[in-house]
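We close this part of the discussion by returning to an individual protein. The amino acid sequence and the backbone structure tokens for this protein are reproduced below:
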Amino acid sequence: MPNLSKTTFLDDSTCLTTVTNARLNSRTILSQYGISDSRLEADLLICYAAGLSRLELLLEPERQLSAGQVTRLRRFLSRRLTREPIQYIVGASEFYGIELHVNPRVLIPRPETELLVERAIDVANRLMAGGIERPVIADIGTGSGCIAIALAMNLPQAQVYAVDISADALEVARANCRRYELSERVALLHGDLMEPLPEPANIVVANLPYVEASELPRLALEISFEPRHALDGGEDGLASIRRLLAQMPTKAFPESTALLEVGFGQAPSVAELAGASYPDSRIRAYRDLSGVERVLSIEKFITPHVIRAA
């Protein structure tokens, strides 16, 4: 296996002229710079740089890459060596089976957030089975629009509002809505948390910033490329969640359900906050695939008051 230095890689394009060479040498350089999933990432970067499908990559190993494709691949690899997230480099991220456009204006969708979507779909289906024909769902802090779009695609009867305080983030969400022809079904609103909602919500979903401010400098280098405002949850990580809970009485139906994504170890604290605000609510924590209590469900004004982990 060739021993490529970064300088050699940047100066010598001959190592990337065919699909086979590009795959081998891209994997090598990524691995040498500590990228753990170097095989998958190399293939992904080649596909996006050369406009190839994964099947073409596998079936045409001797395919020649054009000078432009090689230049683009070298640029992609150089950026990845700085630890820039691969999603920003290729401009795409998969979430709930949907490919979404992303860039540094928005947080990269995480697999664990799919649990938030699953729980919201379940709640909406229960509401519709109970006679609510048009459940109103508010996605607070929509970012790329990943949650709102996944919900709209799986719940065609629902009215989905997607809110963000960042106008830049809403531009990304708008592009993703247009891609899936959801511009009429997902209403994008600019403003702070629930304030812009034009009608009460039956379901509130929120993946708000929940990283403690003191922890931000210690996060992985890749995360430093993401927008700080989408990560910084204040001194205890719960500043935005606390403000959202305070808005619920005037922006959601009394029988509504709030589904909040929380960080590792935060579920008990958020449950305590919610219980203090809504003592007659039912509160339940749902675990993600890693066993972390990731989503907190708060059903307002329902007794008895219970806190338990799923």
Summary: The longest helix spans residues 114-129. Residues 301-309 have pLDDT under 50 and may be disordered. The two ends are 48 Å apart (CA to CA).
